[in-house]
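Homework-ish question, so no full write-ups if that breaks the rules, but can someone show me the predicted structure for this set?
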Amino acid sequence: MKTRTFLGFVAPSMAVMLLFIALPLVSVLWQSLHNTQRVFREQSVESCSPSFIGQTCVTEKRMQPVLDAEGRPVSETRFIGLESYRLLLAPELLSKAVRGVSGAFDELMRQDFYRALRFTLTFALVTLPFVLLIGLGLALGVDTLAKIWRGPMIFVSLLPYVITPVVGALSIRWLFIGDGILTAGLSALAGTKLSLFAQGWTIELLMILYRIWHIAPFAFVVFYAGLQTLDRSQIEAAVIDGATRAQRLRYVVLPHLMPLIVFVALIHLMDSYRVFEEIIGFSAQAHRISLQWLTFHYLTPDHTGNRAVSRASASAILTIIGVAILLLPLVIRTWRDRAREA
Amino acid sequence: MLRKLVIAAGLTITAAAPASAACAFQNQTPIKVLAASFAAWRAVTAAMQECGNVQVELDLQYRDKQPAALRAKPALYHIAGLAPNTLVPLLNDGSVRPLDDLVAKFGQNLQPNQLIRIDGKVMAIAMMINVQHLMYREDLLKQANVEPPKTYEELLKAAEAIRKAGLAQYPIGGTYKAGWDLATEFVNLFHGYGGQFIGQGNMPAVNGEAGRKTLEMMKALTGYMDPEFLVSDATFVQKQFQQGKIALSNLWSSRAGAMDNAAESSVVGKVTMAAAPAAMAGGKPATTVFWDGFSIARNITDAEAEAAFRVAMEGLDEEMVKANNAAAVWLVKGFETTRLAQGAIASAMAGAPPYPATTAMGFMHTALGENVADYLTGRKTLEQTLQAIEASYTTRAKEAGLLK
Amino acid sequence: MGGSHDRGLGPGLWLVTRTLLAIWFVVAAFPLFWMAAMSIRLPIDAFSSNPLRVLLGPETARLGGGGPIGFTGDHYKAVWIDNAFHRQFVNSMIVTFSVVTISVSIGALAAYGLARSKSRLAFWLLMTALIFRAMPHSVLVAGYLPVFANSREWLQPLWDMPGLGALLRLMAAEPPTLYGKPFGVIMVLVAINQPFTIWMLRSFFMNIPAELDEAAQIDGCTPFGAFWRVILPVMGPGVLTTALFSFLLAYNDYLVAALLLDAQSQTMVPTISQYVNSENNLTDQLRAIAAAVSITAPLFLLVLVFQKRIVAGLTLGAVKG
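A: Not a homework solution, just the prediction itself:
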């Protein structure tokens, strides 16, 4: 295809991505290296607020932002280099921890960024094998069902995947929080009152279970579709050769599905590295935080409107770098395939 | 495509609510309101809409978009519902206007204590106060043979007595949800112990006697709370009360009405309201007074501002208060105090301080919200927690240019 | 076809697979089923810790005076009639269908180009798209807010320009405020959705032999003509599958709509979380549950109608990639 024709085809899509993703990305990168501050001036301010009868007035020295002639705040922006990254990554502490200075590792794990990284990586890596195994198991299982059973089974299996994540997380939360029906049931089984939202590890477990419940159906449907493209004569040949079921799975089915397994694994790693809805849905922030939650937290204005834009941007860039590292295998593979084709 | 969509969007916007006789004038100027979503605002905005051409957006996360929406030219909303803390960013941006002229012209029905003055200029109008105060189960306290607590030490003793008497396993409820709620509880107690958050030159001053006492008291209180206290917000505590699971809590006065709602509550008439307990014997109630109210955007025309103010005055009239007396502790003329409002009034009269809404306090509140939970879960020691609060505050204040 | 290789599943294995499948069936359906059950009971039954009461709703039945199993439509009535939930439904539909249409149209063009080009540029565009998919949405959305809120002021110079300005004034008398209106949100969702759409459609195009469009071009078609008349018609299942995934993304979006739409254009999902988080009581929570069930119903139908095609579509394209 000629380059001009090619560009014609990709132009609309690229324009949208350029405008709504690439430009914000550039601005995020820029903001992570700069800091914009209001210009403050100490001023004596009298402010009155109501009590039930009468008012309480206080005069105090406050830092007030300077406004210009049009009544807009004056601000100045300056280049701060990697300062925001340093605040997040705490390199001195990291090097201490790496050198094994006593207590430094615990101190490091109390830092927000590392706490979030720890959870995010655990979350992504623990859910991965379960998603793949359950997906694969379901695909193989459903494939053995009689035709009339397959439809309902696929239908129900897909529900956790298509359901709105906000609703899904809430439905699980309603089952477990406080005296939710499942907590009550588990408590009755255990013979003691359980509080699943009272400690970190149970919330973490719930979040992991929720994500597996939510994503395993995606793996299932992809693998199941993959099974339908399996050349059945290969299986029959294997049967004639006297291969056991396990051997057929190991030498025929799995190799056929391997590209799909890699595909699902990568998509899943990428998405679970950005875990966010679970933290909000399960109100987990006291116990567990994730990298995207941290970004979101820095970015959300507090009640008096302050935001840590620079650190939020740095945290976003670090998240993207993290995902890029996870994606490296796929990039290399695609590159090799291309090189082979060429 | 674009044009069609813009037109479609325009159509939904101009669909105005019909004007009704309850409003003193027929409003012709389209007015948009952005406020928090709770019962009092629902009542006020419904009354505003009676004037016609009023479009209301009630959103609990209003503070996420309010500063940006009011900074725009023209501002996207005319009336901004707010509280002392959420007024700060609008003042900092200069995006709300002084209301003295409008108050003089149309504010005959306002009470003097409704006018929020900053540096002598009226910048907002308050409509209600909201304060965390003591609610307790009178019947359970009598059964356990304890007096209603006046201080936090007595509160712990009362909780112990109730537990010993087997009346409730977790007698105390607390809005200890990590983040803003938890930080507010810290702020209340810290003031009660006589602490000052911000010292000379905007330096943090939490790491001291008051800070230590506050954290220790919070930890002691959590011993009597349902173990899931870190996800427990005001609705959760309200539910615990309604289901008769707890006996004592320092809860928002806006929740008092729910205790007597027969459709949901099994403790109708049994919950008594009182001033917030003091942290130290003989001290002021350990709580801070919030108000809710509104401001008018600067980046709109004077005619729009006038219409907006008049509409807002219609929303805050006696008629509305009479119809919704139980929805809030109103500051508006016509409010009749009830049993349920006693706690808020007692707290305010006993000298509970206003919430110290400043930019610096915004950083402090966030820093508290980020770190206090770590002490309660045992992730950090008391000293580590106080240091972490100060470090988090300092980082944020430096980023914003408040500290050099 | 399917299943033939597993003929003669031994009785042991048969039992194990059937049991495991049955367990999964329950696990997958239970939370949704439970939500539906709660949504038709009064609070006193719905929040009971005795599961039988939630299932059968004895109090609801007693108060409603109905049959042995309690049923109340109050929460649905409150949501759909008193709170006019159909407005949010219409808004959701406007956003979702626009996103799907635009996303698949421009995505198909790009994917076709990328599938047929062997240039290095094409490779790097694909990789860039993948990295774009990694952007945390919260960062993107917060970045749009000030731009969208100020768009009228910022776009004004374009409208004031001679020539171009006149053209733009033909479209709209004054520059649009993007904040609060569906248009901005639609474009944002299209952009966020592009990487996945392109990758998915590309794998479908890769499976259509290039000889097909080459033949068409020899017959005198332009590249676009070949794409339009020859390739697209055989792409039905691929486009449909991709459209379904786009639909899910747009329909289920929370973050973008919550921050960038105003109340009048608000979609269903953010409205639910308003219900849940608003200063509420038990009845409000049940309304939230009824609204949640209402949101799920169209998805339910969607899967019911299209599940075979999802599998067939994936079989034809993505899984061969």
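Now go work out the reasoning yourself. Hint: Residues 111-341 of chain A form a domain with the MetI-like fold fold (CATH 1.10.3720.10).
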